[in-house]
Amino acid sequence: LFWQGLCELSLHHLEDASSLFRAVSGSSAPPPLRAEAEFRLGLTRFRMRRFGEAVQAFQGVEELESESPLLPQALYNLGLSRRRLGEDAAAVSVFGRLVERFPASPAAPKAFLQKGLCLDGLGDEEASLEAFRAAVASPDGEIGAEAQYYIGESYYRMEKWGRAAAEFEKVADLFPDRREWSQAALVKAGESWELGNRFGKAVEIYRRVLKDAPEGARRASVEERIRKAEERRKEFEELEKEAEQLKKQGSKGEAQ
After folding, report:
1. For every residue of 66-115, which 3-state class applies, written as one string?
2. Which residues, at least 6 apart from 201, have a Cβ–Cβ distance to it below 8 Å?
3. Which of 19, 64, 151, 237 is most buried, with most CB under 10 Å away?
4. Residue 139 DSSP symbol
5. Could you tell me if 102 and 90 are in contact, meaning their C-beta atoms sit under 8 angstroms apart?
């Protein structure tokens, strides 16, 4: 029945696969096989977007085989299912259990990233940043780059423009081979510098993007950003000069 379930799953016959996996998990088969069937049932339900049923199945893996090698991934999928249900606090708890019990698991870095996103959604900025930083240390560069980007996003929302820009720039510095994340992060770094009225720094970062940007819409967009930033820099410098002149005139008037 288990192999039949796998065949049905490969054919995208999700209801048939679910029925077969459920039959195996409820049978007198050895616990490891029953646990794997329950895991597959959870995956099938998740793909069907029946997240409540997926939660029950992934929880069943641990109940059937507490030392199953599938347990780290089952916990990760359980956390994702909770998150899809909008149960961020419950998801944080699950991801926390995973990283505490299986810190060396390949699922742990992903769990730190998801935990950070859930905590961010719950408004706990400090805890979310801590989780994202743990994910940055992942040997998986894709996860690390994404986590570092979200660190920049956190400071961006706090309107800490200089810190946000620095964190976004780290994406490109630490993960240069993750081109999509690096380019997106550098553009956000440029935006951050602009919002902090550091137009020279913004232009510098945008020119860095142009070095790797192919011809097309993205390159044209960055070139337009450079043009506007240059214009704003000139305007800002003129305003500063006017303010300085007014200050000097005020000082002369006080002296008289």
Report:
1. CCCCCHHHHHHHHHHHHHHCCCHHHHHHHHHHHHHHCCCCCHHHHHHHHH
2. 165, 193
3. 151
4. S
5. no
* Each residue's pLDDT tens digit, 56-78: 999 999 999 999 999 999 999 99
Q: How far does CA 6 lie from the centroid of its chain?
A: 31
Write the CA distances from 216 to 5, 17, 75, 117, 222, integer angstroms.
47, 45, 43, 32, 10
| Residues 192/165, Cβ–Cβ less than 8 Å | yes
Please name which of 182, 147, 187, 146 lies closest in space to residue 165, comparing C-alpha atoms.
Answer: 187
Name the DSSP letter for residue 213: P
* pTM, 2 dp: 0.86
Separation between Cα atoms, residue 225 and residue 190, nearest integer Å: 9
Q: Is 110 exposed, middle or buried (0-12, 13-18, 19+ CB in 10 A)?
A: buried
Distance CA 231, CA 229 (A): 5
